[in-house]
Amino acid sequence: MKETIKTFCDSFVDYANKEHKITLAFVVNELPHNDDESTDVVFYDECGDEYVHPMKVSVKLGVAICNPVDNNDPEKGNLIAVNKAKNSLPFIYGPFSGFIDENVLNAIADNQFRFIKNNIGKYIKGYNEQKTKYLTRKVHEEAKKIIESTLTDEEKNIVNKLKDKDIRDKVMLCIE
Questions:
Q1: CA separation (Å) from 53 to 39, 92, 99?
Q2: Pairing status of strand 57-65 against strand 92-94
Q3: 23 CA to centre of own chain
């Protein structure tokens, strides 16, 4: 059984302006051509009639995304993506050898990169929660800067005094 491996690399910049490298690996396998081990796909026409068509080629996909705190190693990214692809189920079948060529893989890779970038939370666990926390913290920091820039010197002095825990505790006792 002939196996062809093709990898693609791209990247995206996250909410914190950090670059993540993405590696896609496609493993294209020619399927067995004998009656004992064929991969058949069942099609139904508009009348509900069933047609069985033997498939001759399959494609598996693996995705690896490098954490920006790690040193990007393209060979390691390829190895991880290829391993994931080899251990996944096929997502495309073709009716004859050569049906899935480099042009088809390029088009699928472009589509997959676009999908991954638009749905990165499906690929990086906790990404959406971290993004929300980060952006909320940035909004609070910006709001604090704006508020502090509008304070008079007397108001700034009061705010600075309230940062001292002892003074803050005394003020709280007076309020109670």
A1: 9, 14, 14
A2: antiparallel
A3: 10
Q: Is 81 left (phi over 0), alpha (psi -120 to 50) or beta?
A: alpha
**Burial category of 20 from C-beta neighbours within 10 Å (exposed 0-12, middle 13-18, buried 19 and up):** buried
The answer to whether the beta carbons of residues 150 and 143 sit under 8 Å apart is: no
Q: Whole-prediction pTM value?
A: 0.74
> What DSSP string describes 10-63?
EEEE-TTS-EEEEEEEEEEEEPP-SSTT-EEEEEE-TT--EEEEEE-EEEEEEE
- Closest among 118, 125, 110 to 26, alpha carbons compared: 110
pLDDT band at residue 80 under the 50/70/90 scheme: very high
Instruction: Compute the distance between CA of residue 17 and CA of residue 4 in angstroms, rounded to an integer.
Output: 35
Read off the pLDDT band of 87 (50, 70, 90).
very high
